[in-house]
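Researcher: I'm preparing a figure for a lab meeting and need a structural model of a single chain. I don't have an experimental structure, so a prediction will have to do for now. The sequence is pasted below. Please return the structure as tokens so I can convert it later.
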Amino acid sequence: MTFSKYILLLGLSIYSVFGYGQGKTVKVIVLNQKGQGIENATVQLLAAPNQALVKAAITDKNGIANFTEPAAGAYVFSASAIGHSVQKTVSLLSPFTNKNITINLPAAEKSLGDVIVQGKKQFIQHVQGKTIVNVDAAVTNTGTTVLEVLEKSPGVIVDKNGGVSLQGKAGVLVLIDDKQTFLSGTELSNLLGSMSSSQVNQIELITNPSAKYDASGNAGIINIKTKKNRQEGFNGSIITAFGQGKYYKNNNSLLLNYRKGRINTFANYGVNLSKNFTDIYAYRQYFGTNVSVSPFLDQSSSFQSKNSGHLLKTGLDYYVSDKTTIGLTLTGNLGKRNGRSEAIATWKGNSGNIDSAIGTYSTTNFKLKNGAVNVNLRQILSKTQDLAIDLDALKYDITNDQVFTNKLLAAGGYVKGSVAQIPSTLKILSAKADYTIRFGKNHKLESGFKSSSISTDNIAAYQLFNGSNLSEDLNKSNHFLYKEDINALYSSFESKFGKFNAQTGIRYENTHYDANQLGNSIRRDSAFSKNYSNLFPSGYISYAADTANTFSLTAGRRIDRPAYQKLNPFVFIINKYTYQRGNPFFLPQYSWNLELTHQFKQLLTTTLSYSVIKNYFSQLFLSEGTDILVYTEGNVGRMHNLGLSVSLQVSPFSWWSLNAQSTFNYKQLKGYQNVNYASSVNQLQSSINNQFTINKGLSAEISGFYITRARNDLQELLYPTGQLSAGLSQSLFKGKGSLKLSARDIFYTQAMEGLTDFPAASEYFILTRDSRVVNLAFTYRFGKPLKASKRSAGGAADEINRAGT
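Model: Understood. Here is the structure written out token by token.
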């Protein structure tokens, strides 16, 4: 970092600290029938009229829970405690006239052996800057993987290669519990596809993150938040789900928690077992120099795989004092995918007569092992100042073994093939610190730093098979070493004044990487490195016109760095006529994103957005020889994206809750790939979720999504797709258990279909998967909460809940 940039950040912080006064806090006091404070009561701040959860807190030993005064609007406070009846305030308007709110809880009329506090969350919630998907609120999420939940999340599209786009834009940073996975493409898809959704509490969709977040992800951030309980005593839940499509699916998870006094321990374990298939049909036309159609390639492929995924997250929080909490979290992940495929490629002439046919038979064995350690500290420095420190160490071991056999399907035909071993190791060290100070009249300053180091070791060892012998294929074999360091500083200031609420921030990131492609007897060593620094401003301003209408304007600059795998120019064989290769000349892409949003209560949210991306990432399709096409990625030019999103949450009747969202995008892509390309598309994505309450314990859901023609890449057009799902949920054992039955993609319409333009060729493709599945799941919650103790780390617990650990 240059000295001038450091002074700029420091100056922003100093100006923010000394430019304003003291902030406002709303105090909620929970009393029993004798007028005594109730310790460890749960207080929820709910947005009226739908009572969507905004924030929750636990009372201290005096029965007090503190909240920062929310944005202008109508709100309700709800309080609950063991042995007492739930009570709510009347609707209150913020800014609140009374900053001390008292709630009296009467004793429960009946003494129950176990008291279970339950609340129905909305499937979708909108808060400033993010959309929250509550995974368990949708019955049709039963028995799914995280990747399948993302497919039906509003504004999210998952393409045929596992790539994720948000609000019509590719390039999303995926986090798990606020931490990077450091994976992309197929490896990220395999990770999310092996992770059970029953382990996930919420998915946050953040299209314009603040400066506190990494600047990566031009489309924004998807943050997957796993479940973690902090209830006093020993408690937990178990979920088992069995599904049947063409093949079996099985998801199971176990959540355990024990908290007493100053110690809280937890464990979250999930296992996902399944068998799947993918069928692909492709029809490729080659064009001669006189633009007449030459040969045709007709390809049909069938892939089958057995998959298993195990994820364990466990840890300990120790409340050293009311102001200090230290934590240790251990995460282990094991994913495995064994597959086999059969493909027939038929060459046809101009007349449609078959010239020849090639059969390709392959087996793949993919394994992913991941271990991670996190040590964290949360320190309350004063009533207005907090410090959070996180240290992380991660390691991935990935192996991918492949065997391809090609046979000429004719009398006396040849047998050829290749054997590949593609192991890779990824090591990450990361440290960050975040400092928060609240001062002035509703003002907050956040500043911090983050430093991360990533090193990888990737080998691609290929051998040729001629029917009887194996020999090294030095043209494809590769050994790639890569090291990347990213250092960042940020400062973000948030302020509320009158009807306005604003945040402005700036993030500085420096990136340096060194890459070394080791040679062999026929290929020379090659090395390349790069060092670059950038400033990423971001911010928003919102205006509460009245208690029902809020307007906000959000802007930010972001970056997408090429994944390390995509910088490595090694070859990955898809089939005899199609390869995939990395690109060492791949540069980062940069984007400016602008959003104007209007929110009417909690009912209607409308967003108009615009983004422009420089050095746009796109798939590139190259020709090698007369019949081989190579997939790679690179920078092609610019993309302009104009979007309009409308989200509606309404309850037409007390027994019916509806959430619907539509996102329209006009995308214009321009770039150069051998020739000048220009393409555009009008695309619309719509989703709907209906929740029905049939009686006290029985509920139902009907949901679905539809995507019109779409385009994420310069040369590839996607055809319409969608699905319809339905489910039933029955409460059991006085609310401790539930039984859920669901069916996804009922009409089997979720195909991935499209048209790709290659140099001197075009290809129609359609991909179908085992997406029509019926699931049956059973959930049981167990454990008995402890009676609130006189001595408690309640103050620290409340701060930890606020900190989001």
